[in-house]
Amino acid sequence: MKFTDDQIADIGEEIIGVLKTVYDPEIPVDIYELGLIYDVQISEEADVKIIMTLTTPNCPVAETLPQEVKDKVKEVENVNDVDLELTFEPSWNKDMMSEEAKFELGML
């Protein structure tokens, strides 16, 4: 089944909503606002590819956090399949956080 651009946009918004429910255990801010999600691509068939990073390569949740993201995004209505790529290029830094995240952490 092929989805329209509008349907894909709706799926994308739902995915972002779900990503905002996943938290880095060491920082009380969700992974989306932290800037850990580099890219979300959605095909016409609603196959989703997520490119994300972690705050550090030896992050204690390196095994579980990507799986949690994958599992939660798979639950979004109409999502067909989820491919998650973990990358450390470019490596994450505090400049990638949203204004909201910086405010919550007292950095503004």
TrEMBL record:
Pfam families hit by this protein: FeS_assembly_P
Sequence ranges assigned to domain MIP18 family-like in this UniProt record: 13-82
UniProt-listed InterPro entries: Fe-S_Maturation_MIP18, FSCA_dom_sf, MIP18-like, SUF_FeS_clus_asmbl-assoc
PANTHER family: FE-S PROTEIN MATURATION AUXILIARY FACTOR YITW (PTHR42831)
Protein name, entry field: SUF system Fe-S cluster assembly protein
Organism: Chryseobacterium caseinilyticum
